[in-house]
Every structure is written in structure tokens, then in C-alpha cells.
């Protein structure tokens, strides 16, 4: 596996993922009512509006549970970044989404019971030790913040003060009780789900032992106990840590006060190093000369509500003239976890064709974009000196999600299924000079530069 990492400076290309438009066009109103930015509303209503944003999650049965668990690892990583930067609203929404996804939604996936991957244990531990405690603490902090803002508003509107204060008390009592019941139900669902799988596993083992007794009645069963004595891997013991002190919420840095009220809705922009495709094509040159595709994973960091692409990881892969399949993804995940990297999309070559998304590419990218709405697909067509940066539209996501066909097959063209920009034309959307890294080829095992 080969990866590139940051070394040096370069002016980056900024892409705004919703049709790659500028941020002003992303300023849409919250679908949830009331609006959490409205200081005229009581604090409980504003917190409730944020909470609703974290409940709106749906899963796709055709996406393997492991993809969701990997996405959860990165979701928690992003929430921690928001928390460290003092963006309480974004952190609160992400922790709510994290809890909703892994307690309410994913356990109903048809393949959930058969999924036993390391990330599952990580997620279960994060739920208990991080997500629930931090969600509760953030809720208190936000309520304090919004109460102060509302009090300041009421001071400027003395006539409405008495009515609003009475209304807030009543709503606070009702909403807090409703939220307490919901959180209690979520915790109960998590515990019952784990206990059910534990007892189900025990019953299966007892049945297996019974069958062995019936099959060989005269010979005493002998085992080394390595299987029957183990606690099921996906069983999480909640009780021992129930009274464990909650993970502390870092205090917001004073220098980051300006981003406290940043928007929560909308899509974040992605910053791309300008020499990314040049270096990727150098790496893929030998494959391109033979007419074989090369692919890689785009990774980076979240900082101040923007994604900065810092790494291109090229894992082991098998490829041909019109396909490229990644192999040994565990090595890829290990590298990402070690360097705290987020998956921002993927890149691949079309050695003999133009830059476009084939039907197979559409299905591949839909899984990336389902995990991260801002995810992009970069297609390099060196024969035609063409590079495109793609993202599926809402219509495209809907059509691809409902398509069960494999291999190359036709899709509708109207409305468009994806948006595209070339890296050159995107430069005009650069609004400021940024310190965005250049990339250097690196051997992932030794993390030393490769010879050029």
C-alpha cells in the first residue's frame, strides 16, 4: 500500500459539495422547527430543534453494516474535533446521530447479527463511555448558553418577559421529561439488545452441545473450553461502568469564540491540493501505459467546519481496463485510524476513456456519499488530458440506491445524476489563499518517501 502525506505548502482548490456552489447558496433554513438560531425562542425549544437534526437518519439495507461501523468511527472522530474547536452545536448533533444510528437504526439491519468486526466493539464502547455522557453534558452547556441569549433578548423586550418566562418553564418541564424518557429508552434498548444476543448465543451453544451428546452417547464430550467459556464478542457489559465518571467535555478555546454560532445545516467545503492529480498520475503511470485502472482513497482532516484533503492512500488492488477493486481493506483502516484520518472520497483513472462516472462508478461512489454527504469522486483521464470532480445529486442518490443491477448498465440522464467540475475551472471558486499541503509518495509500512 502506498500513501501520500502532507509536506510543503500549496494553494488549494476549494469545492463546495452541493453542486460545488459557493457557501452563500448553501444557507438554507432548517427543516426542523423551531430554528435553533432564533434567540427569541426559549432555550428548551432551540435545544430540541438541534436534537431533531440528530434523529433524522435512515439506513440502506444494501450497504453492509461494516460500512456503517467504519462511518461511525469517523463520525465520532469528527464530533471530537468539533468539541475541541468549541463548536458545541455541531458536536451535539453528531453525537445524537451517532446514538440514533447505532442504538435505534442499525440493529434492525438484516445482516447486523452476522456482522462481527473490530469496529463494532469500538462503537459499543464509544456509546457507553463517550457518546451518551458527552451528549448529556453538551445539552446542559447549550441550554445554559441559549438561556443567557434568551435572557438578553427579554431584557430588550420587557413587555414579553413575564409571558415568555412562564411559557418557558412549562415547556422546559415537558420537554425535559420527554427527553429523559427517550434517553432512558435508548439505554434500555441497547442493554436489551446486547442481552438478547448473549442469551441467544448461549442457547445456540447449548443446542450444539446437546447434539454432540446425542451423536456420541458413549464418549464423554471433551473440549478445551476455548469457545464455550468465552463471552460473546459482541456482548458489552454495561453495569460495571454505569457509575464511571463521564468523559469530560473540553472547554471551548477563547480564540474559537467566533465559530460558536456557525451553521449546522448544509454541506461543508472540501479543499483539494492542486498537484493531487499530477502526483496520482505519476504513481499510476505504469498501469496507465498498460491500459489498467488505478484507484486510491481520499483522506483528510476536519478543521473549522472544512475538510482538508491531506492524504491519498493507494491500497493493494486488482484491476483491469475497466475496473479496479481494493483488497486488504484492514490495512487501509489501520492506517487511517493510526493517523486519525477521515474518508473524503476516492480517485481512479480511466486510461483510455474520458473523465465520467460509469454505472459501476455511480454505485461505488453512492456508498461513499451515503457515509459522508460531502464525499467526492475524482476521475483522471490522462489520454484526453481531462480530470473531473464528481458528486451525486439528490436524484442520483435516490436512483442508485434503488437500483439492484450489477456490472455496467444504463441509468436515466434526466434529471442529471451527478454534478462535475474540472480542477482547472474550479480554481475560480478559490476565495482566499490557504496553506494546503503538497503531497509526497510514501511507503505506508515504513512511512519513508519512495524514490521518484
TrEMBL record:
Superkingdom in the source lineage: Eukaryota
Cofactor: Zn(2+)
Gene Ontology BP annotations: protein K63-linked deubiquitination; proteolysis
Pfam families, per database record: JAB, USP8_dimer
InterPro entries attached to this UniProt entry: JAMM/MPN+_dom, MPN, STAMBP/STALP-like_MPN, USP8_dimer
Record GO terms (molecular function): K63-linked deubiquitinase activity; metal ion binding; metal-dependent deubiquitinase activity
Keywords linked to the UniProt accession: Hydrolase, Metal-binding, Metalloprotease, Protease, Ubl conjugation pathway, Zinc
Region listing for Disordered, in residue ranges: 210-251
Biased composition (Polar residues): 223-233
Entry keyword Transferase: no
GO CC annotations on file: endosome; membrane
Record's protein name: STAM binding protein-like 1
